[in-house]
Structure formats: structure tokens, C-alpha cells
Amino acid sequence: MSSGETFPMARAAECPFAPAPGLTRRAPVSRVRLWDGSEPWLITRYADVRAVLADPRVSVDVAQPGFPHTNAVSKARDARMKTLMQMDPPEHTAQRRILAPEFTVRKMAALRPRVQEIVDDLLDRLLAGPNPADLVEAFALPLPSLVICELLGVPYADRDFFQNVARTLVMDDPDPARAVAASEELNAYLEDLVTAKTAGPGLLRKLTGALPPHEIAVLGQLLLVAGHDTTAAMIALGTAVLLTHPEQFRDSSADPTEELLRYLSITHTEARRVALADLEIGGQVIRAGEGIVAVKSTANRDPLAFPEPDRFDALRPARHHVAFGYGRHLCLGAPLARVELKVAYSALRRIPGLALAVPLDRLEFRENAIFYSVRELPVTWASTLTTVPPGSSTKNRRTPHDSSVSG
Fold first, then answer.
1. Distance between CA atoms of 19 and 270, rounded to whole angstroms?
2. 195 exposed, middle or buried (CB, 10 Å; 0-12, 13-18, 19+)?
């Protein structure tokens, strides 16, 4: 039986970067109640989470009876549109084989100079504008939006449209019909880009001929929404962590990216699965047809996998985290996200005096969203930079030996 708690659970206001206390005080394999009254199994330990995500007897197919839907919005949308994230082999294997060559570590590393240009331009604009400013609006959101638009061939001028659709899809909207309509509108927009041949150079155009236009549009929606919202959330929330750990923020000897991915695990609704056959996880038999929620945030705070897991340590070798998932559904865009995060965090460290403009307890967090983050991140910086003219890149405002924050 369940503990009576409904998942997802509220995080503690005094520990906004940590998993909800209700996740850490329960048995590692236990029942939990969802929004619709269903009671799937909640899996919280690192080894068990990896076992679930790698097990071929576990399915991501949302049409399977017993699948633990995130909310009414996702259930309604998933009934109308099936993406790579809801496919099992061999369908999943076939589509991933088409996309995987476009997201290799080598190809994403080749994008790094362009990502750096975008970062420098956005920070030039930020530093030339009002001080303090909202880092979400000025930097964290436009950076991945620009990158994914260029990668797909979607006009960035249409960002307000697809960002509004994304907000509808990733938030717990009380009206599922509105989310379905927004999703279908975005699909129609993307399909029109493909069929009318108005898509810019990029992946949408490249896939023409390999897949029908409607399937390209569905893939495009997944990549467009997930490709900017997740990274924007990580940039903003990760920066909030760094600014509350100023000594580590100023230490340029460590790349904090992997530790931030481990420490935060922003997929608030976690990995959803359903058992296709009886299996045993953590000593508990899970029957065919029973839902499973694999909790990556607690897996990444498991002391058996990460000593002193609640301590943020930018020097920690944390790459074995499961923030991007594990197994055949390991996030396809992980190499791109890593490039964007590494460039973003490195550049932010070069801004003298960068700091939160409000106390941490005054930040508002997105608890009713698929991807946990801050709604706004007010920041300030050394006042002498307010007169720097636009176009003078942040990378040119430091000496060759100074890559740290100076105060």
C-alpha cells in the first residue's frame, strides 16, 4: 500500500536544491499515489534506478495499461502524439538510429565556437543593460533557444510562439485541452516549415525524405521544447547554486557542470515506466502491468554512489550520475546540453562581482512543472561594468590569466 503521500512531493523551502523530504524518508522501493489515484512503485536508490532504466522488461509506452502518467496534460497529449520518448524497440531503435548521428559528442563539440559567440553576445547585452537584471530572461532562456533554433532550422523570430507552447506543455495546466491544442498548433507550424521548404539549414530540412513530414514535426517538437526548456532550467538553477557557493564559483580550476547535473537533477516528475513482465527490484517483486517511477534526483543523492551526496563539490568526479537517464533512453541531447552548460557557466564566472540580487529564500521556484527551476533569477554585478558599450565581448574584458570572478 502507499504511504498516503502524493507524488511529486513538495520540496523543503529551506533546501530548494534538494529532493523533496518525502522522497528521502521512505523505503527505497515503495508505493506512492499519483494525481489520478493510481499507485505505482517509487524507486529511489541509485543501483535500483539504473536497473529499472536498463531493463528490457520495462516499457516507456504510454499506451500500456498501468503506465503512470505525469498529469492530465501529459495523458491527453500522449494519447494524440507519440514521440521518441514514448517508444520501445524496434520503433525507438529505428528513429534513434536516424537522429543519433546528428547529436554525437564530436558534432556537438564542433558547435562550441558558435555557442561561445551566442553566449558572449548575450552577456554583452546583459552587462550593457539595467543592473540588476533577470538572468533567466536575459541569458538562461535565450541561449538554448537560439542554439536549438539554429540546429533545427527554426526561425528564432518565432521564439515567443514556441516558448509559450513549451510553457503550456511542461507546466501542470488545469486544462488538458489547451495543452493538446498548443501541441497540435506547434506540430502544424513545424510541418509547414518542412513541407513549404521554409525551414532554414538544419535538422528539419536534413530529415526531409528520411521521414514523413508529420513525423519530422513530432520529432521537431520534442527537440525544440526539450532542447531549450531543460537547458534553460539548468543554466538558471545551476547559477543559483554557484552563486550560493562563491568560493567554488570563483575557482576556475574545476568545471562544475557534471556536479551540478548530479546535485540538481531537474526532471521534477522523474522517469516514468511500466513493467511488461514480473521483475524484482531492490528485493521487491513488481508485477506486469504495474507502473514505476524511477527517481533520478534521489539516485543522484545516494551515499552509496556519491559520498556526502548533499554537499555540492565542483571537484567531485560525478559523471556517472543519471541526470540524463540511463540505458537505451539516455538523453539524445546530452552532448549538446553539456556543451551549452560548460560554455555558459565558464562565461558567467568571468563577470566581476556577479551575485544574487535577492536572498535565496526570496526566489520563486517552478514546483508545478516537469522541469524544476527558478522563475526569475535577479543578479547584480560590479557597477563599473554598467557603462561598457554593447558589442565589447566579455571575453575581451579580462586579462589572459584572469578567468575568475574578482569580487
1. 11
2. middle
Structural domain harbouring 321: 2-396
CB 305 within 8 A of CB 317: no
Q: CA-CA distance, 374 to 186, in Å (whole number)?
A: 25
Residue 204 pLDDT exceeds 70: yes
What is the pTM (predicted TM-score) of this model? Answer: 0.90
Give a yes or no: residue 402 inside a domain: no
> What is Dmax (Cα atoms) for the chain?
65
Cell of 379: 543578479
- Beta strand 378-380 pairing with 284-286: unpaired
Q: How many domains does the chain have?
A: 1
Instruction: Kindly state whether residue 209 falls inside one of the protein's structural domains.
Output: yes
SS3 call for 125? helix
In a domain, 368, yes or no: yes
Using pLDDT thresholds of 50, 70 and 90, give the confidence band for residue 262.
very high
Q: What is the domain-level CATH number for residue 181?
A: 1.10.630.10
62-71 residue pLDDT tens: 999 999 998 8
Buried/exposed 110-147: b ≥16 CB within 10 Å, e otherwise: ebeeebbebbbbbbbebbbeebebbbbebbbbbbbbbb
275 CB-near residues (< 8 Å, 6+ apart): 57, 58, 59, 66, 286, 287, 288, 289, 290, 291, 292
CA 200/CA 103 separation, integer angstroms: 18
